[in-house]
Specification:
477 residues, alpha+beta, three-stranded antiparallel β-sheet
Length: 477
């Protein structure tokens, strides 16, 4: 896996930001207004306009990264990290950026880059500031000398003697505090380099005392001529006292000067130590930043590796889940196929059973039909046999009746013949028999023709005509 170059990504993002910042920005950054000087904490205001849809809490301001400094050609300084940015919204002045430094500024020239971010875009802006130099220490010295002259003139008017007040050199000389900031009597401005301290250290202090001493001697001589001996003695005493006080003041001034020189040296040593400490802190900070960048790169590499591992795990899990789903689908398909096969087998068995049942029913129906046909045939045969028996019985009865009738006729004929014989009359039996036969024609059979309702098993009635010995018989076939 390739290591991601964070600097290239940052440069690319910053380049894109610079290219599209003009089109994306929805507000305008005004010019900076500085309200501080050298020797004071930096204080400036930057107006922000065209913020119709942006609130103050949505604007994020921070010091630009070093890559932006390098791209814009601005030197990055450790002092820039001490700048505090506050976005303030005022009803009268609108939204503006307030810039305040943590430490006192000793450089008259400041060049830094600020990054502005808001919901619709971001931009990096370079600000170049030239601070006003501090006021010189001559003004406080002149004010102190004027104050001394005023006091001496008032003393001369009151006592009638010539007295000059020695100015306090501690007021004129600058003070040195423990934070390596050199200030004058006003406490507002300070020099930013040690060359000014060296110049003040090399400035003679005794020259002012010598001029003051000559002035006092001239005043004593003038008083001796004008005011008499008493006035001269008084003036001389006053001059001696003044000279003694002046010597003490000079000694104190020299002691103060030595103390100030020592303090300056200590301040320079502290400043050098602070510069070295700042350099070490800067080196340590750079080392920490480099370590943090390496740690961040390693963390990003680990994160990417973890993400890749998680992606592989997710892909493997998805593949396993997909395989399981496919296996489940195949199992379900096989199960459905088996169920369908079983259903088909059951349907086939049911169809076979129904076919067998239908065949059985058809066979039973055919058997019933055959049985019915046999029963009908048997009934028909029985009916025929009955009818035949009845016909035979009728025929036999008719035959017996005919025989009986013939026998009766024969008996009658014999009886008649016998009676005729008895009367001695010859009788032609044949001729007499014929009339008797003609007289008594054969009667039809007493058999009654069957009714149409008496039909055979086939539902049809057939009539047969039987002639036998002159008798007519009717029978159902």
């Amino acid at each position: 896996m390739k290591r991601i170059n964070l600097q290239r990504i940052q440069k690319f993002l910053l380049l894109c930001a610079l290219v599209f910042s003009t089109a994306a920005q929805a507000m305008r950054i005004g010019d900076i207004t500085v309200q501080s000087a050298v020797g004071e904490r930096f204080f400036a205001i930057v107006p922000i306009s065209d913020t119709r849809r942006v609130r103050a809490e949505q604007i994020l301001v921070s010091l630009a990264p070093r890559s932006v400094y390098q791209r814009m050609g601005v030197d990055w300084e450790y002092f820039h990290t001490g700048l505090i940015f506050d976005v303030i919204e005022d009803e009268r002045e609108g939204i503006y950026l307030r810039i305040v430094s943590k430490d006192v500024v000793f450089e008259p020239f400041i060049d830094f880059v600020i990054s502005f971010r808001w919901p619709s875009g971001f931009i990096s802006r370079q600000f170049t500031v030239l601070l006003d130099m501090p006021l010189s220490s001559a003004a406080p010295a002149s004010r102190n000398s004027n104050r001394a002259n005023t006091a001496s003139s008032s003393a001369n008017r009151n006592s009638g003697s010539v007295v000059r007040e020695t100015p306090d050199l501690s007021r004129v000389e600058p003070r040195v505090d423990g934070s390596n900031r050199i200030s004058n009597s006003t406490g507002r401005n300070a020099n930013r380099q040690q060359r000014g301290d060296d110049a003040r250290t090399s400035r003679p202090v005794d020259s002012g005392a010598g001029v003051e001493r000559i002035t006092v001697v001239d005043e004593v001589s003038e008083a001796s001529y004008l005011g008499g001996e008493s006035a001269a003695r008084q003036a001389e005493q006053l001059a001696k006292a003044q000279l003694a006080a002046q010597r003490r003041a000079e000694e104190e001034a020299a002691a103060r000067q030595r103390a100030e020189t020592k303090a300056r040296e200590e301040a320079r040593a502290r400043a050098e130590a602070e510069r070295e400490a700042r350099a070490r802190a800067e080196a340590q900070r750079q080392a920490r930043e480099e370590a943090e960048r390496r740690a961040q790169a390693e963390a990003e590499a680990r994160l990417q590796a973890e993400q890749a591992a998680r992606a592989r795990e997710v892909a493997a899990a998805e593949a396993r889940a997909r395989a399981e789903r496919e296996a489940t689908a195949r199992a379900e398909a096989d199960k459905r196929a088996r169920q369908e096969a079983r259903a088909l087998n059951v349907a086939e068995q049911q169809a076979q059973a129904s076919a067998q049942a239908q065949q059985k029913a058809e066979a039973e129906a055919a058997a019933r039909a055959r049985a019915e046909a046999e029963a009908r045939a048997t009934a028909k045969a029985a009916e025929r046999a009955r009818l035949a028996a009845e016909a035979k019985a009728r025929a036999e009865a008719e035959a017996r009746a005919q025989q009986a009738q013939r026998a009766r006729a024969a008996r009658e004929a014999r009886a008649l013949a016998e009676s005729q014989t008895a009367q001695n009359e010859p009788i032609d039996v044949s001729s007499q028999a014929e009339p008797s036969q003609q007289a008594a024609p054969a009667k039809p059979s007493t058999a009654v023709a069957p009714e149409p309702a008496q039909r055979s098993a086939t539902g049809q009635a057939s009539w047969d005509h039987v002639s036998r010995s002159g008798d007519t018989l009717w029978a159902i076939a």
